[in-house]
Write a structure and sequence with these properties.
The structure holds two protein chains of two kinds.
Chain A lengths: L2 H13 L8 H8 L2 H9 L4 E5 L6 E5 L1 H24 L6 H20 L3 H19 L5 H32 L14 H15 L8 H7 L2 H11 L2 H9 L8 H23 L4 H25 L4 H31 L4 H14 L5 H13 L4 H30 L11 H12 L13 H16 L3 H4 L20 H4 L7 H15 L7 H19 L5
Antiparallel strand pairs in A: 1-2
Helix pairs in contact in A: 1-3, 1-5, 2-4, 3-4, 4-5, 4-10, 4-14, 4-18, 5-6, 6-7, 6-10, 7-8, 7-9, 7-23, 8-11, 9-10, 9-13, 10-14, 12-13, 12-17, 13-14, 13-17, 14-15, 14-16, 14-18, 15-17, 17-19
Chain B lengths: L2 H22 L5 H27 L4 E8 L2 E7 L1 H24 L6 H20 L3 H19 L5 H32 L18 H19 L7 H4 L5 H10 L1 H17 L1 H7 L2 H20 L4 H21 L3 H32 L10 H4 L1 H15 L6 H14 L3 H28 L19 H19 L7 H12 L2
Antiparallel strand pairs in B: 1-2
The chains are: A mainly alpha, B mainly alpha.
């Protein structure tokens, strides 16, 4: 039976070439995640599968956190695949999209069940590279640019992770280190692990690819990118950091600091956006930052780590389902004319915003209960949670407001069915993962909703003027070599003197000999990697 | 002579004899020529299978012929020679099939296949050479057998490329010969031995040994395309695609890298080389070559030239692995001998298919080529991803072991950045090609040369890259399975360090 763990990811991989077939092949994409779903639902906890002949010796396992991630990812993949297959008739490159979805699926599921470094890395890099095909799928210039930024950052994350794993293997002498063996990592090792997964998670400073890439992909793929793939960063930290066996206060505070800052900054930037998918992307950054901050607490207080990890996993699952429903929902409201669709779209938005007795509220309560430990780290998190209970409704209402402006004209057809299935799954199933229903911080939530509704009805000019000021991807626009020349002006609010100096600087950078267009971007990658390593490798003996 | 002496000889003859017969064949005897080629290649493959089994069980395979007192011609099979012999033999078979398809209807095929066979004979010979003298003989023979292949097209450009090749390699041969003779006078006749021999001989002048090392490595570095001796390789890309495949993956470049490995491990001994202080400069040069080749590859629009600079970079991994002390780095470097071969031959097969089928020679002409030739481009993609170092393709495992070896030897601080920069640069020059091939709309092809076949190109051109790409994935996916290249290399490393 444990062989199911192997089939869970190898079947999507083997089906990948077959989904290219236009007629029968397309439905195979929907079948591909089923072995993983079966594995998640039927295998007993802590199942282990060792395949010493595969790669350098493969270990797969299904512990409690992995089981949650696996069930959620597989279920979401099934529905997103169904949505993609049922809605891609017109698109000329639909076969290519299916191929990349199957590959990304194999990578995503593979890394969830992997317990050893090599197969984890295999899953991580397969997922990362295949997603490039999802991001650039539409072929528009913005999608291509998003793809480029995404690819550069993803490869950097993969290379950084490779070094981290090399260090870890060299230190522990095993490919699947136990939690005890993970203790005593060097600052370099932990720092690299932080940076690699921070890029995938979209933590502040590492997030610039995310608001570009997630909206660029077709909606089924965006749902997976935001709903399942970025969540694997959490699993990466859980697997390779000494969670629960060693107290790392400094690193814990780094997680909390970067996480808390990201959670708030992303919310603020998200509020200034006009594209509903970009608002959702910033919302994902905000939630991933929050969960990273929770892992920070687990790093500071090893005793509470196991419970915190389980809540983080459950939180990730509830958020993944609902974020997936929202991303697909954006496509639905853009296509169909019906007004009640917006009400349906409001359901997952309400759950994410923490509406009383929804999964969001239950998750927040479960988290809050674990954080009453009277430590400064936990108190910081409680403060952050309270703040977010107030701000998340703003972001979700901003999202609904933006989604409302892009209405479609089509009549309802069968293509909506997968989404209609996803809605109850997303809103109800995650409740199973929490012990009790709860009102959450109903007061804060209500205050957030009411104030946001008031602002929508009576816009305040100083605030509305900020809308559209920050381009998606914010910081990336300041980077000269990756920037679109046209978009740059959107950030330009400098006085004349400064602009002149900046223009001169830009002239310098665009004057790269032999390197133009595509290549100037690709040249940034090795340079950045070198620079990073030059600073990080200083303490290798 | 016992059977164990016959086997190395038979392996040598299995390509020498068909080669000599092919020379005498009339141009029109195509079937017979093909049959001879394939019989030779398959026979060799079977013989090598026997050799692998024998060496695994530590049987002694040696043919010794004394030319003069103290001057022996020795063929000897140890684990390291088996690694190179089996790589060459397997890829030779695939390349022969490819060449038969590639050169269909072109002139001078008897000459071509004759030298082709000689070239592999020389490669297998130098792989099994038991001492420096024998090695030098085959090394020179390889130079001479390859020259007509590079010049095969007979165009002024081809002849110029071949002359440059000959100039470089003959000069390298002279250096190698000088080094070998000097060492012979200093230390007497020496057979290669695992763990090295010079460290055990007392009273040798370390300075002389350092100079000899320099001479030997300079001579071998020409073929291994170490900077600044690499100039011939990008120019030799005028040769037909199967010859490029042979140069880059099977024979010439590999012979140089293999020679460096032999000198470091089996003449000097890696620990003794370390004591002499010759490893660090060689390692630094290899590291520089890795970066240099990749940087040069970035700006090449000619596909084969880009691949050639990529070889300059990738082959230096092998030398780099040899200069880092410790079994893990040894594994990483040696296994790359096989991994790089399998991946690079795939890339050259694909490049040849583009040129032969669509007239596409330049990266800028490759827009949408994936739609027109999906199978070839899929193979190209697999190999390119492997070059970047992504699992499960073979290249990842070379990098993994090189990285581990560097950490083990305390050299991580400079080797790992080199590996990463190389990976990043590989991504920078391969991924844009893949993007063009798969995502951009197909343009008009320069010279569509494909009208009467059902597949995307001739079957004899389509199958070889598929097979080698599959091989590149298989040796990675089953890296820990018995008789995988990685397992074999671990065997070599344990024998080297025991």
């Amino acid at each position: 039976m444990t062989l199911l763990l192997l089939f869970a990811w190898s079947i999507p991989l083997l089906l990948a070439p077959l989904v290219l077939l236009p007629r029968s092949g397309r439905w195979l994409l929907v079948l591909a995640p089923l072995p993983a779903l079966l594995a998640g639902l039927t295998l007993p906890l802590d199942s282990v599968l060792s395949l010493p002949w595969l790669l350098l010796g493969t270990e797969m396992k299904l512990d409690a956190a992995r089981q949650l991630f696996l069930i959620a990812a597989a279920a979401l993949w099934s529905i997103a695949s169904l949505h993609t297959v049922m809605n891609d008739h017109e698109h000329p490159h639909s076969a290519r999209l299916r191929l990349f979805m199957a590959l990304a699926m194999a990578g995503n599921i593979g890394l969830i069940v992997s317990a050893d470094m090599i197969s984890f890395y295999l899953g991580f890099s397969t997922m990362g590279l295949a997603s490039y095909g999802l991001v650039v799928h539409s072929g528009s210039s913005s999608a291509r640019r998003a793809g480029r930024v995404y690819l550069v950052m993803t490869l950097m994350a993969e290379f950084i992770l490779l070094v981290a794993l090399l260090l870890l293997h060299q230190r522990t002498g095993t490919l699947a280190p136990s939690p005890e063996q993970l203790r005593g990592g060097s600052a370099l090792e932990i720092g690299l692990l932080f940076a690699a997964f921070a890029t995938k998670a979209g933590l502040l400073g590492f997030h610039v690819w995310l608001p570009l890439a997630h909206p660029a992909a077709p909606e089924g793929a965006s749902a997976m990118l935001s709903g399942a793939m970025i969540k694997t960063a959490l699993l990466g930290w859980i697997t390779f950091l000494p969670m629960g066996t060693e107290a790392l206060p400094l690193w814990g505070w780094l997680f909390i600091g970067v996480g808390a800052a990201g959670a708030l900054v992303a919310t603020v930037i998200g509020l200034t956006q006009t594209d509903p998918k970009v608002v959702l992307a910033y919302s994902s950054i905000s939630k991933m930052s929050l969960l990273s901050a929770v892992l920070g607490v687990a790093l500071i207080e090893p005793g509470s780590a196991p419970e915190l990890i389980m809540v983080v996993a459950a939180y990730a699952v509830f958020h993944g389902f609902n974020k997936g429903a929202l991303f697909i929902g954006v496509g639905i409201t853009k296509r169909y004319a019906e007004h009640w669709l917006l009400l349906l779209l409001a359901l997952p938005a309400a759950v994410i915003s923490g509406a009383p007795y929804g999964a969001g509220a239950a998750a927040k309560t479960a988290l809050t209960e674990l954080l009453f430990t009277d430590s400064r780290a936990a108190d910081t998190l409680l403060l952050l949670l309270t703040l977010m209970a107030f701000t998340t409704p703003w972001l979700m209402l901003r999202f609904l407001h933006c989604a409302n402006t892009h209405r479609g004209t089509g009549a309802i057809d069968a293509g909506i069915a997968p989404w209609l299935v996803l809605l109850p799954v997303a809103t109800l199933v995650p409740l199973l993962f929490f012990d009790e229903l709860s009102a959450g911080s109903a007061g804060w939530w209500l205050a957030g909703v009411v104030s946001a509704l008031l602002l929508i009805t009576y816009p305040l000019p100083p605030l509305t003027r900020l809308v559209g000021r920050v381009p998606p991807g914010d910081l990336i626009e300041l980077l000269p070599s990756v920037r679109h020349r046209a978009v740059f002006t959107r950030w330009q609010r400098f006085p004349d003197v400064g602009t002149r100096g900046l223009n001169r600087l830009r002239a310098l950078q665009f004057g790269w000999p032999l390197l133009s267009g595509d290549r100037s971007v690709t040249a940034v990658l090795p340079l950045a990697v070198l620079l990073l390593l030059a600073t990080l490798l200083l303490d290798i003996p | 002579m016992s059977t164990n002496a016959w086997l190395p000889l038979l392996i040598l003859w299995s390509s020498l004899v068909p080669g000599l017969i092919i020379f005498s064949l009339d141009e029109s005897r195509q079937r017979l020529r093909t049959a001879l080629n394939l019989i030779g290649a398959i026979t060799k493959l079977l013989l090598v299978a026997g050799l692998i089994w024998g060496v695994y069980r530590e049987l002694l395979f040696e043919f010794r012929w004394t030319l003069a007192p103290g001057l022996d011609f020795v063929l000897h099979a140890d684990a390291l020679s088996v690694l190179f012999v089996s790589l060459s033999t397997l890829l030779w078979l695939v390349t022969t099939i490819y060449a038969i398809g590639y050169l269909e209807h072109s002139p001078d095929r008897s000459r071509f296949f004759g030298f082709f066979s000689l070239c592999v004979t020389a490669t297998v010979g130098l792989a099994m050479a038991g001492n420096l003298f024998t090695f030098v003989i085959f090394y020179e023979a390889l130079t001479l057998a390859t020259y007509p292949l590079v010049a095969h097209k007979g165009t002024p450009e081809a002849i110029r490329g071949a002359r440059i090749y000959l100039g470089y390699t003959l000069a390298g041969g002279v250096l190698l010969l000088t080094g070998a003779v000097w060492l012979r006078t200093l230390a007497g006749p020496l057979d290669f031995a695992q763990g090295g021999i010079l460290g055990d001989i007392p009273g040798l002048d370390p300075d002389a040994l350092r100079w000899i090392f320099l001479l030997l490595v300079a001579g071998l570095g020409v073929k291994a395309a170490l900077f600044p001796l690499h100039g011939w390789l990008p120019r030799a890309m005028v040769a037909p695609a199967p010859v490029s495949a042979l140069l880059h993956a099977v024979a010439v470049v590999k012979a140089g890298a293999f020679g460096i490995v032999r000198v470091v491990y089996d003449v000097y001994g890696v620990e003794f080389s370390g004591e002499l202080g010759v490893l660090m400069p060689l390692g630094a040069l290899a590291a520089f070559t890795i970066i240099y080749g990749s940087v040069r590859a970035l700006s090449q629009d000619h596909l084969k030239k880009r691949l050639a600079y990529s070889t300059v970079s990738q082959v230096s991994y092998i030398a780099l692995g040899a200069t880092i002390l410790g079994p893990l780095a040894t594994i990483g470097g040696l296994v790359h001998l096989v991994h790089q071969g399998v991946m690079k031959i795939t890339l050259f097969f694909a490049a040849g298919n583009y040129a032969e089928t669509l007239g596409v020679h330049r990266v800028s002409e490759m827009n949408g080529v994936g739609r027109r030739m999906p199978v070839t481009t899929a193979a190209f993609t697999v190999a390119a991803l492997g070059m970047i170092g992504l699992p499960p393709v073979a290249g990842f495992f070379s990098k993994w072991y090189l990285g581990l070896g560097a950490l083990e030897a305390g050299a991580g601080a400079w080797v790992i950045p080199v590996l990463l920069a190389s990976s990043a640069l590989n991504a920078a020059y391969f991924l844009p090609i893949l993007y063009r091939a798969w995502f951009l709309p197909a343009g008009p092809w320069p010279l569509e040369n494909h009208t009467h076949h059902r597949g995307e190109t001739r079957p004899s051109l389509q199958w070889p890259p598929m097979v080698t790409a599959a091989l590149a994935v298989l040796v990675g996916t089953f890296a820990a399975a018995p008789f995988s290249p990685l397992e074999w290399v671990e065997l070599i490393a344990t024998r080297e360090y025991r």
